[in-house]
Amino acid sequence: MITRRSLLITGAGGLLAGCDAVGRSPVGKSILGGGEDAQHFLQRSIVGRDALAREFRADQMSPRFRVNGSKSADTPDYLAHAANNFADWRLRIDGLVRRPFGVSLAQLRSMPQRAQITRHDCVEGWSAIGKWQGPQLSQLLDLAGLRPEARFIVFHCADLYRGTPYYESIDLIDAYHPQTILAWAMNDAPLTTGHGAPLRLRVERQLGYKHAKFVMRIEAVASLAGIGGGKGGYWEDSNGYQWYAGI
Ligand SMILES: Nc1nc2c(c(=O)[nH]1)N[C@H]1C(S)=C(S)[C@@H](COP(=O)(O)O)O[C@H]1N2
Ligand SMILES: [Mo]
Question: In the CATH scheme, what is the code of domain 53-239?
Answer without folding.
Answer: 3.90.420.10
